[in-house]
């Protein structure tokens, strides 16, 4: 295994350990053990917006007065004006700030403020992670039962899994919307290689696990993505269970100029 890749693995191990220690200290500082208090929110939810003239640009202009709005990988501010299936504004929106300190200021200054003639409501955004995980697990269970009706459980082969290390910043607290965006980026890139069955993100280890339909697609993913960069971080991509195996000659000699970002 090349020295650079060994160094990256060691660096990832150290970052994981630091992240675990940081999370442990944070839990010890919390009073009452409430889950809601463990992560300071950096997103706000707006409702009762005027539907005809309100735009995302207007919201960005109004709410950037209270702090920098976080940007995605393309540099676009994270402000989403929700629309229905016909593309019509529904009257609510989500804004993600770069720092959590901006949230209480924005709420204090803008909750009840008249925007385009409507008295808007501004509150801390509540992400329904548990509900989504439950829905996802129910979908997976229904899919699994369909397979099991034709095959015994022990005969269902496990899909090959690719681990993408360093995909997440271990020192950043991600909201559900941000993780969904990253999942979509990963999915778009992996679908160019083969059929993807599932993607899991682990914010503690900073890794993603991608389940492919067959092993050849999974190994091609390792070959194509190992060593690429995503959001400024160099990725370590390998087959799950083969962490200590050396990369192939093609992988180790892949042109580093091939795509600056993981999925572009």
UniProtKB/TrEMBL annotation:
Pfam families: RRM_1
Occurrences of domain RRM (ranges): 42-127, 160-242
InterPro entries: Nucleotide-bd_a/b_plait_sf (IPR012677), RBD_domain_sf (IPR035979), RRM_dom (IPR000504), TatSF1-like (IPR034393)
UniProt-annotated stretches for the region Disordered: 21-43, 131-156, 241-264
One record GO biological process: U2-type prespliceosome assembly
Swiss-Prot/TrEMBL keywords: RNA-binding
Gene Ontology cellular component terms for the protein in this record: U2 snRNP; U2-type spliceosomal complex
Keyword match RNA-binding: yes
Signal peptide: none
GO molecular function: U2 snRNA binding
Coiled coil start-end: none
Tagged with keyword RNA-binding: yes
Protein name: RRM domain-containing protein
């Amino acid at each position: 295994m090349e020295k650079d890749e060994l160094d990256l693995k060691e660096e990832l191990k150290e970052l994981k350990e630091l992240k675990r220690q940081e999370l442990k200290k944070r839990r010890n500082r919390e009073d009452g053990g409430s889950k809601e208090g463990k992560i300071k929110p950096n997103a706000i939810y707006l409702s009762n917006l005027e539907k005809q003239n309100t735009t995302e640009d207007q919201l960005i202009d109004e709410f950037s007065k209270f702090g920098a709005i976080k940007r995605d990988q393309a540099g676009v501010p994270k402000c989403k004006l929700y629309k229905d299936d016909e593309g019509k504004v529904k009257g609510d929106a989500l804004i993600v700030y770069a720092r959590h300190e901006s949230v209480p200021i924005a709420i204090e200054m803008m909750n009840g403020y008249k925007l385009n003639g409507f008295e808007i409501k501004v509150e801390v955004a509540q992400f329904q992670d548990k509900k989504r995980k439950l829905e996802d697990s129910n979908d997976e269970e229904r899919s699994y039962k369909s397979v099991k009706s034709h095959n015994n459980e022990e005969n269902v082969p496990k899909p090959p899994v690719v681990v993408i290390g360093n995909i997440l910043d271990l020192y950043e607290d991600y909201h559900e919307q941000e993780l969904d965006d990253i999942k979509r980026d990963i999915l778009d890139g992996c679908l160019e290689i083969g059929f993807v069955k599932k993607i899991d993100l682990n914010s503690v280890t900073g890794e993603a696990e991608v389940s492919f339909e067959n092993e050849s697609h999974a190994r091609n993913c390792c070959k194509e993505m190992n060593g690429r960069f995503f959001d400024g971080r160099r990725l370590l991509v390998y087959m799950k269970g083969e962490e200590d195996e050396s990369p192939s000659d093609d992988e180790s000699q892949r042109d580093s100029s091939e795509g600056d970002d993981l999925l572009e």
